[in-house]
Design goal:
Elements (H helix, E strand, L loop, with lengths): L5 E7 L11 E7 L5 H8 L18 E6 L3 E5 L10 H17 L3 E9 L6 H13 L4 E5 L6 H14 L7 E4 L8 H12 L12
Parallel strand pairs: 2-4, 2-5, 5-6, 6-7
Antiparallel strand pairs: 1-3, 3-4
Length: 205
């Protein structure tokens, strides 16, 4: 998948603001500090199209990025920020539930987790949401370059086990420091877009 033009179309706070052109959408979910904006910038070959908030977890919007006038990459609001108020948590939950359940354009939600740590309870809940509303769990393990070689296998196994991943699920190591995982994710998006639902979980870079 080659990307030539990308731009932020809208930062939506309600369904009436979502794009209405019927294009396929590929969403990214994860904790507020897991690196979603950095991952999106990496995929799009941009440095700052997806902006990192100065106050993590405080902005509750769904950001739609127009890719070559063909599809949207969707940055879902981060979860798990300790200082979020009860009202903000409820707003986040309602927005996420509505988008995941009712958005017909949504093809796949990718779950981002920090490769250095055991997935949190919020990560497990999001994995369950994705399974409930979709067919396959695709997990992207971010900050992979920060792992020591001796940590890679046990950390990946811990993520797989904690999220209850099965034979149809996919775990992709990802690093914004190099191209680790970048082309795997782009290739998966292209195959899903083409309707090729059988993805080899052992895809090479």
């Amino acid at each position: 998948m080659n990307i030539h033009n990308a731009e932020l179309t809208v930062s939506a706070v309600s369904p009436k603001q979502y794009p209405s052109d019927g294009r396929m959408e590929f969403a990214f979910a994860g904790r507020s500090n897991v690196g979603k904006s950095s991952l999106i910038n990496k995929l799009l070959n941009r440095k700052s199209l997806a902006r990192v908030s100065g106050t993590p977890g405080k902005t509750v919007t769904i950001n739609f990025y127009d890719i070559d006038k063909t599809i949207y990459l969707v940055d879902l609001p981060g979860y798990g920020y300790a200082k979020r108020s009860k009202a903000e948590i409820e707003q986040w939950g309602s927005m996420m539930d509505d988008y995941l359940e009712n958005r017909e354009n949504l093809v796949q939600t990718f779950l981002l987790v920090d490769s250095r740590h055991k997935p949190s309870k919020d990560d497990v809940q999001m994995a369950e949401w994705i399974r409930h509303y979709g067919d396959r769990l695709i997990v992207i393990a971010t900050k992979f370059d920060k792992l020591k070689k001796s940590e890679i296998e046990p950390n990946m196994a811990l993520i797989w086990e904690t999220l209850g991943m099965g034979e149809d699920d996919i775990l992709v190591p990802f690093s914004t420091k190099d191209d680790e995982g970048k082309y795997t994710v782009l290739d998966m998006i292209e195959m899903l877009r083409a309707g090729d639902i059988v993805i080899d979980e052992n895809m090479e870079e």
